[in-house]
Amino acid sequence: MTDVNVVKNDLEAGKYDEKLADIYGQESVAYQKDRYIKAVDVFAAVFGYDKSVGVFSAPGRSEIGGNHTDHQHGNVLAASVSVDAIAVAAKRDDNGIRVLSEGYPLMELSVDDIEKKKDEEGKALSLIRGMLYAIKNAGFEIGGFDTYVTSNVLSGSGLSSSAAFETIIGDIISGLYNDMKIDAVNIAKFGQFAENDYFGKPCGLMDQMA
Question: Which domains occur in the chain, in start order?
Answer without folding.
Answer: 57-209 (3.30.230.10)
